[in-house]
Amino acid sequence: MSELEQAKEEMAFKLFGRSRTLAIAGNGCVKCGESAMDFRDELSKKEFGISGFCQSCQDDIFGGPDEDDMKDEVLGQVHPIFEFGGSKRL
What is the pTM of this model? Predict the structure, then answer.
């Protein structure tokens, strides 16, 4: 284990009472102990490999997605019932 990895491991034990290495190996969050299997994107998944934080804890620490981004994502979706050629009537 490198000096940096050892420092991260010791810090995790001091802050959270858990092994960062074991948490990551078991797909669990070092901070909250919950499952860490679902991530918003590849960057969040990569962060889990670095910090051992699940998506929820990453959002708590680094901030969640920007509300305007989420609004644009939701508003950009078209429900299937509205996807017709324009001349059809329901």
Answer: 0.69
In degrees and rounded to multiples of 5, residue 54 shows phi and psi of -70, 175
Report the C-alpha gap between 36 and 2 in whole angstroms: 24
Letter string b/e over residues 10-27, b meaning 16 or more CB atoms within 10 A of that residue's CB = eebeeebebebbebbeee
In this predicted model, what pLDDT tens digit does every residue of 39-50 receive, in sequence order?
999 999 999 999
Alpha helices in 17-77 (DSSP H): 20-25, 42-51, 55-62, 67-75
What lies within 8 Å, CB to CB, of 31 at 6+ separation is 15, 16, 52, 53, 54, 57
User: 51: which residues sit within 8 A by CB, 6+ positions away?
Assistant: 20, 30, 58
CA–CA separation, 51 and 46 (whole Å):
9
Cβ neighbours of 68 (radius 10 Å): 8
